[in-house]
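Board notes (copied after class):
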Amino acid sequence: MDLGIAGKTALVCGASKGLGYGCAEALVREGVNVVIVARGAEALEAAAAKLAAAAAGSPAPFVKHVAADITTEAGRAAVFALGHDFDIVVTNAGGPPPGDFRNWDREAWIKAVDANMLTPIELIKATVDGMAKRGFGRIINITSSSVKSPIDILGLSNGARSGLTGFVAGVARTSIAAQGVTINNLLPGAFDTDRLKGTMAGAAQKSGQDFDAVWEARKKTIPAKRFGTPAEFGAICAFLCSMQASYMTGQNVLADGGAYPGTY
């Protein structure tokens, strides 16, 4: 299927690895120019090289990278120094740490809200009006399945990402919807990423169990009996950016192998 987005330009955050990289790769394979941003320069350069090799189309799309912390004003300024005319924006920031809410002070909450709510809002604010003027725009926020089914030890994430979800529900339904701009949230469940491995390693250490045993036990809790891959997550993201998805906006798209047990 031709998604109709070849030649568009995308900003993809947190794209040096994991789900962000999966989204960037899916987009370049569709002929989309991409600007990728992440904090680690070495990993980002390696990701950019891989993406350039994966780029499809004639002429091949460009791949640019900016090593910056997108959750800071300076980081966003570094990205927007390349321009504001992005047709596609994929917001993505590492989730805050797990823990007991009794141990989180105001600073921990502010940091979580800043990264996982206010940063996506700032990126939307900086790009959405230009998208509307040009008559096309796609904003995808990578949030979490915990927005639908909260996880007790992820209270910082539950709270900050739920705030973003409420904001998007309102802004996606303003006049921009009639100007070709859609805003949707993509909610990952358990995907085979370094973050999941880190979480499982912590769980194994805490329980005194072998990592492999914890890893396999976690798989069994998912109806699909496996973890998702960044590539298939990226494919969903690319579809939401497509011309075919132009009638979808303000939605929370859950990708979790069937783990969420609810009807709605």
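Comment from the instructor: Helices lie at 18-29, 41-54, 73-80, 106-134, 155-171, 194-207, 211-220, 230-240. The first helix runs from residue 18 to 29.
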